[in-house]
Inverse folding.
């Protein structure tokens, strides 16, 4: 257990229990119980590590009420990282209790194998068909329990994953300025192929050859969030090896969650003599697509999109974990005809957090309803966000709230403004 907490012990000592973290904790805002606030979780972890609190199912459940949104760490005046303390304690409990069959199937059997993930998508396609039938029969919103939530969350799935639509190396358009690796995350690959193609097209437009390695695996964040640290480390090594083979100047991703975890590879593998140096080097070259493009794109789009009212939702893993807030807004504001209207609290969590909507539906939907109300207040017809989990969650909330707005990744709007739609379509066809 000590290895998991090696660089976090001082966090417990620095916590002065001021409550600043509780004031920004989305679960405390809904549940109003101290044990479901960031400060409360730190107190529970302190009691557990000091032996005053046994490792019980209740402790485990309380730790999993955390959304891992990083708002607490971003707000703490003393630099305490409650989010990392929670993940380390989950890992300690997982080591103690062992891995369940369900988690073993997901983390050991699926996430390390992109091909298997694609094949495992058949239940989602079945749910998509079920949703179509429910919409036709006017039964949307009446499906029972978590089935209704699962069906409602799913976007319209692409016919083929993005990996099968993108060449392994996509050449720069015009003078070549460098070579970047594109980290195609699981969700972008399987659920939002249009956004993936837009990212590659914009990077090409900026003058970069784009490498999309075929042997990439999940970034490792889902495994780490569920305490499966060994799996996360194995996935990190596999991804580092893939990018080393391709020889890239930088690694770009259009998934906020992937980006935040890729930037943690140096810390994740700090005690691995064989990989520590490479992990730290690659982590230092990772950039969110908005970070990269804000500094690299040529002149702003010429034609724009016509009058378009857009509001922007800050993904937690982009704004809080990576500190990237200005660049996505700058890219959106560069589009002629686009008006960016801020929500009252654009950096508040949407309640998505990967599987959180399925594991804690009541809390998740209570958080989501507030985001939907704020989005509706802006009267925007598009909600832009750079995280697939946020995108699914917000789209679900807008449909439930009957708000006439769609959710798009900023790169999709930007690619459309640059007129890349037709060329992207041709490229995807030519790569078949």
């Amino acid at each position: 257990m000590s290895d998991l907490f090696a660089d976090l012990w001082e966090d417990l000592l620095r916590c002065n229990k001021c409550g600043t973290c509780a004031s920004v904790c989305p679960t405390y805002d809904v549940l109003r119980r101290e044990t479901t606030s960031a400060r409360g979780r730190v107190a529970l972890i302190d009691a557990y590590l000091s032996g005053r609190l046994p490792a019980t199912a209740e402790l485990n459940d309380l730790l999993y009420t955390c959304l891992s949104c990083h708002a607490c760490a971003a707000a703490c005046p003393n630099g305490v990282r409650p989010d990392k303390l929670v993940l380390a304690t989950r890992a300690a409990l997982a080591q103690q209790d062992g891995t369940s069959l369900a988690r073993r199937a997901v983390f050991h059997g699926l996430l390390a194998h992109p091909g298997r993930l694609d094949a495992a998508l058949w239940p989602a396609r079945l749910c998509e068909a079920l949703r179509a039938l429910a919409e036709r029969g006017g039964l949307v919103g009446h499906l029972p329990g978590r089935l209704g939530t699962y069906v409602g969350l799913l976007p319209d799935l692409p016919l083929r994953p993005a990996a099968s639509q993108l060449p392994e190396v996509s050449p720069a358009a015009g003078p070549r300025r460098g070579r970047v690796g594109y980290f195609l995350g699981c969700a972008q690959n399987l659920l939002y192929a249009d956004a993936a193609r837009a990212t590659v097209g914009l990077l090409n437009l900026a003058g970069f050859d784009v490498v999309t390695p075929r042997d990439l695996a999940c970034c490792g964040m889902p495994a780490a969030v569920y305490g499966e640290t060994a799996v996360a480390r194995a996935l990190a090594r596999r991804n580092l090896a893939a990018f080393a083979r391709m020889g890239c100047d930088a690694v770009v991703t259009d998934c906020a969650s992937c980006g935040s975890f890729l930037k943690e590879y140096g810390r994740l593998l700090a005690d691995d003599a064989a990989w520590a140096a490479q992990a730290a080097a690659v982590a230092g070259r990772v950039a969110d697509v908005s970070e990269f493009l804000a500094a690299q794109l040529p002149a702003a789009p010429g034609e724009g999109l016509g009058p378009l009212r857009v509001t922007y939702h800050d993904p937690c893993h982009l704004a809080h974990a990576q500190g990237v807030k200005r660049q996505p807004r700058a890219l959106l504001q560069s589009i002629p005809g686009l008006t960016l209207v801020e929500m009252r609290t654009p950096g508040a969590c949407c309640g998505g957090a990967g599987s959180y909507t399925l594991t804690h539906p009541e809390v998740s939907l209570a958080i989501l309803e507030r985001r939907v109300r704020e989005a509706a207040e802006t009267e925007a017809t598009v909600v832009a966000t750079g995280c697939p989990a946020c995108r699914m969650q917000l789209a679900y909330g807008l449909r439930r709230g009957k708000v006439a707005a769609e959710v798009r990744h900023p790169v999709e709007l930007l690619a459309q403004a640059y007129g890349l739609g037709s060329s992207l379509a041709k490229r995807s066809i030519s790569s078949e």
